[in-house]
Amino acid sequence: MNWAFLQSLLSGVNRYSTAFGRIWLSVVFLFRVMVFVVAAEKVWGDEQKDFKCNTAQPGCHNVCYDHFFPVSHVRLWALQLIFVTCPSLLVVMHVAYREERERKHRLKYGEGCKRLYQNTGKKRGGLWWTYVLTLVFKMGVDGTFVYLLYHIYEGYHFPSLVKCSQAPCPNVVDCFISRPTEKRIFTIFMVVTSLACILLSFCEIVYLVGKRCRECITKIHHSRQMVKAASLVSVKNPNALLESNTMKLVNKDQPAPSYSVAIS
């Protein structure tokens, strides 16, 4: 699988991410994608060939392997990485949509017209919701795959010896997993990095929501200060408003001057 292509697609996400988002992207590519490409595929590359059972019964080896490894770890992690990284492209697509809309607006009303967006990459309005929803989706994906990995394999432990009694095995046979300790270490490593990514996404959501709440509170406080200042001015000089309104009424009721033209 060409992970470099996926990395090139997501390279633009850094421009629109917060500090937590940049750390998340670094963790994904350094500790998940790179480890997956360099080490994990080689560790699980010979899992079926080196899965040995002490029986010569035809089909017993395949049935036992399918029972203990219903889904390959490598394919499961590849699917997880695809699902967890591709939603970030929605942010880039949303920014591209804003830029295209801004370009059409300038072509229609001229370069000196009022801009639709002060900054197309600023997380406001619909882009803020898109960004937050992608974070929630990524947290859900990572959490789901961590649970699936635990549920399918009944934990993250790889014993050296497993007992298999599936048909068509004649009796309970002993099967041996190749390099169980190494596989257990890499499995725990991938699970821990997934949990770290969930924590980073959660921190980013808290940061974005807290920042938005702070901006709303500041805006409400500023508006209240303006109203309070206006009320203080009216209390200190109550006749100012009355005089201004009286002048407006006098000017409104005063008839227009008449002019006469003498014809000699």
Q: Per CATH, what is the topology?
A: de novo design (two linked rop proteins)
Largest sheet: 3 strands, antiparallel
Strand order of the largest sheet: 1-3-2
Q: What would you call the structural class? A: mainly alpha
Q: What fraction of the residues are assigned to beta strands by DSSP?
A: under 5%
**Low-confidence stretches at least 5 residues in length (pLDDT < 50)?**
248-254, 258-264
CATH-wise, what's the superfamily? Gap junction channel protein cysteine-rich domain
The CATH level-2 architecture is identified as Up-down Bundle
Alpha-carbon distance between the two ends:
103 Å
Distinct helical segment count: 8
Subcellular location: Cell junction, Gap junction; Cell membrane
Keywords: Cell junction, Cell membrane, Gap junction, Membrane, Transmembrane, Transmembrane helix
Membrane topology: Multi-pass membrane protein
GO molecular function: gap junction channel activity
